[in-house]
Write a structure and sequence with these properties.
It contains 13 helices and seven strands. With 359 residues, the chain is an alpha/beta fold. The chain folds into two domains: 222 residues, Maf protein (Alpha-Beta Complex); 91 residues, no CATH class. Strands 1, 2, 3, 4, 5, 6 and 7 form a seven-stranded mixed sheet that branches. Helix 6 crosses helix 7. The longest helix is centred in the C-terminal third of the chain and has 29 residues. The protein is flat, with a radius of gyration of 32 Å. The termini are far apart. GO terms for molecular function: nucleoside triphosphate diphosphatase activity; protein dimerization activity. Its cofactor is a divalent metal cation. This is BHLH domain-containing protein. Keywords: Hydrolase.
Length: 359
């Protein structure tokens, strides 16, 4: 009897269950190998580049690392999140906030450039907000009382939306070459809370707030922690979006802004040749247009320095002439409207152009 009681007090073993069902004692199997990394082109490419995460959130970094992105540099934005909520809808607000974070960190990385550190190849930024059923935007709680009010409101309205906007930026060539490509997406997930009659009374909410788990999270709860088990009844959509970053969307945006992983060396070379042709054609077209617009430029060819000098001289001359005409008209008692000044300058320009044309 004592032996039986001792046996029932101890934790059950899988071997006991196997013996009861005639399975016998299982033999030791092979040692389990560690999980292999996800083998997809975009992850291979990003792991060989300088990837900057414009967020101090450890959860966003952990989600990217879980997917297989091992080399992540965290550079949070230092600018205040001061986008005017009244000027934007919830979707536009969160998208604009993420875009500003992305551009701020990208610019900051270039301004603090060191010779030993390459410019960023990809910058990832995100922003998460809660949108209540009545259209209010909730971010992180400001105090314990605000935290309790926030969770009670989410419980009483039963359903809310979690919006996470992701912005991904990559320079087109070298980061110091003018131009970059930025893409964004806002993901929506619906979260349903338990109601008060189903086991979520005020004292349970207050007890959860005291754990401090949701202090630094939009909406004041962590779906991946106690909050997900205690507060959330159902989630419709991406769970990692509620955590703070829809990772699949993030990788898709990285592919969109940076096509290099999908290009062969021959394709890269061909793209460079085509890009150079377009650049030269644009320069020629610009010179030809300037030669038609600026006086005394006919027959000067496409000398960059000379054309730039003539352009600057023309702008300065026209600005001074505009001031002279305005002064003369006003001294004569007239009103110098924009239309009048433009017509006078155009008439003078036509006269000068005719004089400069070769006979």
């Amino acid at each position: 009897m004592a032996a039986s009681r001792a046996r029932s007090d101890s934790a059950p073993e899988y071997t006991d269950a196997a013996a009861e069902h005639g399975g016998g004692t299982p033999t030791a199997g092979p040692i389990r190998r560690p999980m292999q990394p996800l083998d997809i082109p975009i992850l291979k490419h990003l792991n060989s580049k300088r990837v900057v995460l414009a967020s101090a959130s450890p959860r966003r970094k952990a989600l990217l690392q879980q997917m297989g992105l091992t080399h992540i540099e965290v550079v949070p934005s230092n600018k205040p999140e001061d986008v005017d909520k009244s000027a934007y809808g919830p979707w536009e607000y969160v998208a604009e906030t993420a875009r500003r974070k992305c551009l701020d960190v990208y610019t900051s990385c270039l301004e603090t450039h060191l010779a030993s550190i390459p410019d960023p190849d990809v910058v990832i930024a995100a922003d998460t907000v809660i949108v209540t059923r009545d259209g209010r935007i909730l971010e992180k709680p400001r105090s314990e009382a605000d935290h309790i009010r926030m969770l009670k409101h989410l419980r009483d309205t039963e359903m809310h939306r979690v919006l996470t906007a992701v912005s991904v930026l990559a320079p087109r060539e070298d980061a110091r070459h003018p131009g970059y490509c930025i893409a964004g997406h806002t993901e929506e997930t619906k979260v349903f809370f338990w109601n008060e009659g189903d086991g979520l009374p005020d004292d349970v909410i207050e007890a959860y707030v005291k754990t401090r788990e949701g202090v630094d999270k939009a909406g004041g709860y962590a779906v991946q922690g106690i909050g997900g088990m205690l507060l959330a009844r159902r989630v419709e959509g991406s769970v990692d979006n509620v955590v703070g970053l829809p990772v699949k969307i993030c990788l898709s945006l990285a592919e969109k802004v940076d096509e290099k992983p999908r290009l062969t060396e021959m394709e890269k070379r061909q793209n460079h040749i085509e890009s150079e042709k377009k650049r030269r054609n644009a320069i020629r077209s610009g010179f030809d247009t300037l030669a038609k617009l600026l006086p005394r430029c006919h027959g000067l060819g496409r000398s960059e320095g000379l054309m730039l000098e003539l352009t600057c001289h023309y702008i300065i001359t026209q600005t001074e002439r505009r001031r002279e005409l305005i002064t003369a008209i006003e001294e004569a008692g007239g009103e110098a409207s924009d239309e009048m000044i433009k017509s006078l300058i155009d008439a003078e320009q036509t006269s000068v152009t005719r004089e400069s044309l070769p006979e």
